[in-house]
UniProtKB/TrEMBL annotation:
GO terms for biological process: RNA modification. The keyword Repeat applies. The keyword Ribosomal protein does not apply. PPR repeats lie at residues 15-49, 85-119, 187-217, 218-252, 319-353, 420-454. It holds the Pfam family Eplus_motif. It comes from the Eukaryota. Coiled coil: none annotated. Keywords: Repeat. GO terms for molecular function: mRNA binding; RNA binding. This is Pentatricopeptide repeat-containing protein.
Length: 642
């Protein structure tokens, strides 16, 4: 461009063509302000504007969103006698439509005596881009009736996108039929758009039919169908179409690789992940940050977090996605302290966090019961103006709830401007897990007063609150009401929660009946039988417990949980031979015993307490204090958990 300007400055007698060339060059290089400046210099030199010059000027204004300047140029257009020239009118119309000034666009559109296919495409696209898909479709119908103008491929694609924005496949199907009649059945650009939009609407069958009838396919075609299948979780089919793509002689590009990595991480195949990573390196594509981040995420999701970490450390130009990906995966793998340490490193590097990053950090703070760390993260959320995002505010509620601070959880909940059913359910669950069952029920009633319909998670939160609060009748009423709600269907978790509620209250026969009802709809799982076994332990019913433990072991033969729960039940009843039997089975089968743990935070430091663990430096003092307190409270000590 510098050479072009040097040559331009050497021209003594510049005409409109030379000015237009240099203005066009500025636009091509995204120097829109310079293009406008060159136009003003041209006018100052005494040279009159031409039709191409005015078109270029409006192009620059369109990119700048300069509405006032475009309106002023409109007056110049009228004075110079260009007001009836369609190409100039179209350029001005595009400025208004692009900036979302639809009233100005409609006024100009109505004033136009002559309209070509570009005119109609601009007005249709303007409404589609500004979230008025219905009006865009109306203009498309009017276009057909107005002078018989035939739409081009660009118009068709715009209208198709408007149909997809309506989130209804029926208009898309109708328009598809019309497109075939217009002769666009073999148009690759239009067909690629159809595949993409059908997939976005979840209609992968129609997307496949479009591909089957295409005589010519390119890499966009194959990437569109593979992307659609991956987004709709048809992973096996996505792999099959990748094979078809290779047979068609189309080489996989960056988009294909990203989709393949999405499939591989769903199957947890780290070997395949390494193979794709090797291909990426051989082709020199590792500099592509989207690909690099996708490989990193795939390694972690396939259980190779160390390989993901190695790739992260080798990445020089880390972006926000790189940081968020590695932090999220450390958090998902339960390595919360390392996730927080990485976040501090990211913070020091002055990389600004987004909502995805903060969700991982809040989850780690919740898992570590790190209340002060959670409050610091809350401050960052406010500083970065993320508190209005519903996922973030919901995550804050969960974090405070798991740290035991229901007051702050409620404060976040009340200040959230965009509550959805998940937010309400989280706050109800927060009350439930912290022993405020009545408050949970009151909030449930308040939720309904706002005409917010409960979902499966809401009912589970209410049932859990009733279970922990001993509210048997309220829990029964909630469960019965859920059964009458046509929008939701009770799952294994709901039944298990109901069994737990009745079992804790000592209604063991009623709990058994709930499990009996499950066989009519869904099979009772280990969670339901485990809840009943736990109730048998609490209430000392070893006869029923003996029957139940067989069910638990039958459902989860490789888990130590059922054996240990039965062992605890027998120990409480002084049935030591049965205790020994359960313990010996665990040892013979080589089952791994997963110890439960508790977390508390004292003076900014989290302390983890695990059953049978004496590694804490103050273990002796802690156990002596606990024994003294239990003696004062006259509790019977459960020998199994001491």
């Amino acid at each position: 461009m510098d050479s072009a300007f040097s040559l331009f400055n050497c021209i003594e007698n510049r005409d409109s063509v030379s000015w237009n060339i240099v203005i066009q060059g500025c636009i091509n290089h995204d120097s829109f302000m310079k293009a406008v400046f060159m136009f003003s210099v041209m006018r100052a030199s005494g040279l009159s504007s031409t039709v191409p010059t005015m078109v270029l000027l409006f192009q620059a204004y369109g990119h700048l969103g300069a509405i006032q300047e475009a309106t002023g140029a409109h007056s110049l257009m009228i004075r110079t006698g260009f007001s009836d020239i369609v190409s100039i009118q179209n350029s001005l119309l595009n400025v208004y439509a692009r900036a979302g000034e639809l009233q100005l666009a409609l006024r100009l559109f109505d004033e136009m005596d002559q309209r070509d296919v570009i005119t109609w495409s601009i007005i249709i696209n303007g409404h589609a881009r500004n979230h008025h898909p219905g009006i865009a479709l109306c203009f498309f119908k009017e276009m057909h009736n107005w002078g018989g103008i035939k739409p081009d491929g660009l118009t068709i694609v715009t209208v198709l996108q408007a149909c997809a924005a309506m989130e209804d496949t029926y208009p898309l199907l109708v328009l598809h039929s019309y497109i075939i009649k217009l002769g666009f059945r073999t148009d690759v650009f239009v067909n690629n758009t159809l595949i993409d939009l059908y997939s976005r609407c979840g209609d992968t069958q129609s997307a496949r039919r479009v591909l089957d009838y295409m005589p010519e396919r390119n890499n966009v075609t194959w990437n569109s169908i593979i992307t659609g299948l991956v987004q709709n979780e048809h992973y096996i089919e996505a792999l099959l179409f990748f094979n078809h793509m290779q047979k068609d002689g189309i080489e996989a590009d960056e988009v294909t690789m990203v989709n393949l990595l999405q499939v591989i991480k769903r199957f947890g195949d780290s070997k395949k992940c390494k193979s794709i990573h090797s291909v990426i390196i051989r082709r020199g594509l590792e500099v592509n940050m989207l690909l690099s981040n996708s490989v990193m995420d795939a390694y972690a999701k396939c259980g190779s977090l160390e390989l993901a970490w190695r790739l992260f450390t080798k990445t020089n130009d880390r972006d926000l996605v790189s940081w968020s990906t590695i932090i999220a995966n450390f958090s998902d793998c339960g390595r919360h302290k390392e996730a927080l340490s990485l976040f501090r490193e990211m913070y020091i590097s002055q990389e600004k966090p987004n909502s995805v990053t903060m969700l991982s950090i809040l989850d780690s703070c919740a898992s570590l019961a790190a209340l002060l760390g959670g409050k610091w993260a809350h401050g960052l959320v406010i500083r970065n103006r993320l508190e209005r995002e519903v996922t973030v505010s919901t995550s804050l509620v969960n974090m405070y709830a798991k740290c035991g601070d229901t007051v702050m959880a409620r404060r976040v909940f009340d200040s959230s401007p965009n509550k959805n059913v998940v937010t309400w359910s989280s706050m109800i669950g927060a009350y439930g897990m912290n022993g405020h069952a009545r408050a949970a029920l009151e909030l449930f009633k308040e939720m309904e007063s706002y005409n917010m319909k409960p979902n499966e998670i809401t009912y589970l939160s209410v049932l859990s609150a009733c279970s922990h609060g001993g509210l048997v009748e309220e829990g029964r009423a909630c469960f019965e009401r859920m059964g009458q709600d046509p929008r939701v269907k009770p799952s294994v978790e709901h039944y298990a929660c109901m069994v737990d509620l009745l079992g804790r209250a000592g209604h063991l026969e009623a709990a058994q009946r709930v499990i009996g009802k499950m066989h009519n709809e869904i099979k009772a799982g280990p969670s339901a039988w485990g809840a009943l076994l736990s109730a048998c332990r609490i209430h000392g019913n070893t006869e029923l417990g003996g029957e139940v433990v067989q069910k638990v072991i039958e459902l989860e033969p490789s888990s130590s949980g059922g054996y240990l729960l039965a062992s605890s039940m027998y120990a409480a009843a002084n049935m030591w031979s049965d205790v020994a039997k359960m313990r010996s089975v665990v040892n013979e089968k080589g089952l791994r015993v997963m110890g439960g743990y508790s977390l508390i935070q004292v003076n900014l430091q989290s302390h983890r307490f695990i059953a049978w663990d004496w590694s804490h430096p103050q273990s002796q003092l802690i156990h002596e204090t606990l024994e003294h307190l239990m003696g004062e409270m006259k509790w019977g000590v459960d020998v199994e958990f001491m």
